[in-house]
Task: structure prediction
Amino acid sequence: MAISDIFIFEEEYSKLNSIIGRLREEANAKVVFLVDKNGQQIAVDGELHNLDTTSLASLTAGNVAATDGLAHLLGEKEFTILFHEGERDNIHISVIAQRIILVVIFDHRSSLGLVRLRVKKASTELTPIFETILQKVSQKREAIKKKFTSPFAEITDEDIENLFQS
Result:
């Protein structure tokens, strides 16, 4: 189930924001994003001026999708970590809970080693939150299905045939 098919509940959203805020501080990063694999931004923390967050989320999801294709060509399930190094900024991308993309943008004030260490810790905190979200959504969907059953659900093919034979 794609994360965009679900709701982010207030309690979990608050936890997500807290974790990515702490990650940004501890990794000395400029920006930290959570994005679903469809390119929808879930949460963000950091220096957002002059940053097109919508495009960044979409392009990151596309990057992960392309890398998944490369992984399959090489016989791998997936590559869970990507790193792009630029003149001023670097991007560390990791897939967590098999459906969420964690993006950390950092510059010379930090290092790849520090970012990887902090991302690993944050990932272990984020995974159970997304599992809780999926569980809550599943429960809500089941409750809705039970509440709104079709009025035609109990009509059988035999009932329809009997109606037209009369």
Q: What stands out?
A: Residues 89 and 107 are 5 Å apart (CA to CA).
